[in-house]
Amino acid sequence: MLYILDTANLEAIRHCNEYYPLAGVTTNPSIISKENTDFWTLVTSIREIIGQEKMLHVQTTQKNADGIVEEAKLLRERLGENFYVKIPISEEGLKATMMLKKMGINVTVTAIFTPAQALLAAMAGADFVAPYANRLDNIIADGCAVVAEIVKQFEQYGLKCKVLAASFRNAEQVHKCSSVGCHSVTVSADILRKVISHPMTDAAVADFEKDWAKVYGDKTIADFE
Q1: Structure letter (DSSP) for residue 166
Q2: 54-68: per-residue pLDDT in tens?
Q3: pTM of the predicted model, to two decimals?
């Protein structure tokens, strides 16, 4: 399982990159625009924080294949090899995906809502497909079930493409996707914190601290050296 951070907020990226085993960062035009700052300064700052060894996913803004390819080439030139261009599923997106894979550029096909879309994207050469779990739940569909079916299809046909589940509203959705063999998830910093949070954990830690303090006060193990 790969945990990826879905934000362009530099403070959140710095914090989560230090405290969590992140595989990288994903962004999209909506996430980028929330920061309301210079685009290139922002994405190069993200790259500096996470380093070249971690993935950085950035979405193009062009709608036709040639334009998508040109933006992807520029993005990789500036952001390094461990870069994935995000392309919404469409005819032009599939064409661009096939063109980019011939150039050796990594592709994440996004805005996936059906297993059929995911399969076509994978056959076109996508490295990741990003189904939107919570948005499916919002229309009385089962986002996790769609993720599970995509995973099963990829295994059935021996495809190397990975499922990058996105659009989460709570930690339970993340857990359900991981339990069906989803290869990776991209989540906000808030959801990432909720994944490790539990009231019983807090209670257990409080008991540890209370019992220690009864005998040793405010001493730490280092104080006994």
Answers
A1: B
A2: 999 999 999 999 999
A3: 0.94
